[in-house]
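Lab channel / #folding
Pinned by the channel admin:
"Please post every new chain as: sequence first, then the structure tokens as a reply. Keep commentary short and put observations after the output so the thread stays searchable."

First post following the new format, from NK:
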Amino acid sequence: MNGRNRHSGHGLLAVVALAAMFAIGVLVTGFSMLGGLTGQALADCDGGRSNPAAIALQAPGGGATVGATEYGGPGDPSSGTVGSSGVNLERFPDSYAELGGNTFTSADALGGLPYGTPLRITWGQHSAIAYKRDIGLGGGPIDGHPRVIDLWWQLARALGIPYENGEWSGVVKLERPPLTGAGNTLGQSQLAADPSGDTGAAACAAPVGGPLPVTDGPRAVIEPNDLAAAPADAPAAVKGIIAAGNEIVGKPYVYGGGHGLPLSEVAPSYDCSSSVAHLLWGGGLLAVNTDMTAEEFESWGLPGPGKWVTLYASSDHVFMYVAGIRWDTHNAAGPDDGPPGIGWHPLVREDIGFVARHPVGL
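Reply from TO:
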């Protein structure tokens, strides 16, 4: 939890009231506004530029007027650079924090948005799309409006908000961007609530091609064609990861392959880190322009194994388990470990020298 919580402790009743208004659809601007993604199509998770200048500005937008604050930056060292999601916010400057609590479940000032939810944020004459990657406790109303959102300082500066060492507060307009995505890909027309109940898990998925096969069991299953079937009850993010993996099964391994391209683009070849990044993008867990090395995955997400997804990273290699099966670039556990190249593998491999990490909520 970062240092902006020194502003916390007041106004939570107003926050709850605002969240309720969002949830019942009172505030609309031509399409669904804030609140959870229940009953809506999957959100488009593209974004997350590598520097503040790359935040794409738009014409002013409309939506609900809410209280906002800025956090982070050189004058606010107590906030640090790593959000509660485990993401380095300097790498993803188009980030915001939903307020109201100290966990991804209790921070529900905007209705408890899933991790990675995009919002269009307008201040003055500037507007930009930002993504939920953090949380905070919040505080009292700002200019009569409930305080519900914190803006990462690089996002705030791109919007033209003056930098005040993490102390700026004011009002902004929030609205949901038009929804696109992969409902048909995942064999569903709309996204139901995450069955895990953990709003820390990303609820958006990549628009990968072909329907995703599913299985009734608790684990994913590798089919005879080397594609994977996802557990029917798995969270949408897990299904998105598996769908993205199926898209590149069997691609040639080339060291450096797949890097330098948007994760939404199917590359001619991949290496370990670019293939893992493509899968995580498929689950809505990485922005489309992310480019990470195996070593960088050693500090990504949260430490230790996850319930659904676990990455094992070192300075030289990264692989991961998804719903009980392994994504890897080779059959490291021997000839019974499936196909020799990039794809799904059924066996558990040696992990000495690797760091275990997992995505928030998964």
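NK: Helices lie at 12-23, 153-158, 236-248, 272-282.
TO: also worth noting, The chain has two domains: 3-175, 214-358.
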